[in-house]
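Apologies for my clumsy wording, but are you able to produce some protein sequence, whichever is easiest, and the tokens describing how it folds?
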Amino acid sequence: MAHGTLYAVLPPTPEATPPPWLALAAAPWIPEGGLLDHPIGLLGYGGGTVARLLRGASPKVEIVGVDLDAEVLRLGRRHLKSAVRGVTIEQAEAREWLARPGPRFGAILDDLYAPKGGWLARPADLVDVPELARRRLVAGGVYAVNLRSPSGQVEKQIMIRIRRAFRQIRVIHTLEYAHKVVVATDRPIHAGALKWALSRLLEPTARHDSLLGRPGFGSPRMLGFRPMRRLPHHSNRHKT
């Protein structure tokens, strides 16, 4: 808890992580071929929930976490083991960080929220993050964002930007949480990609993984997900 609301969790096992964070962490494996050969950027690092999942699945992947809130970062280090080995954390505003010259990333995972009236809300000035993130991705890189569902005006504007910037877009709805994760890339995304990505994310910590044909924690639905839904790409010529 920080600023009176929940920012991150430290679950007893990786598969017990709330589905929105599981989907964000699985996103680098969803496009064909995966993107783990390149660094991964985490916007809204918080308490390191997504970083711990990624590090557990791929100990060699380079991770850069970005967060503006010094208090959240301090509490994460103190209570949530957010100082994950091999992760570089930069205290910076996300849009300013994305606009800097720097390396390109295989995936940029966006969990940017700020406290508002005792809840977390997506700041209205961040609607252009999808376009900024695309400029920092390698060819075929993936941008994934955690959004509230049903969408408010800010989320709708972000979806318009995503559909203009990327050709392959999938929406992952959760069963119990009022959130959806949008995964966007230019690489092909095949049927069964979510199941495959979750198995790659969780296999190192699950000795009996039924996603790979052995008894274990179950299907994506058992982990709290609805089937992944495809959205069409919209060019700038299309009306919005």
In short: Residues 1-7, 205-216 have pLDDT under 50 and may be disordered.
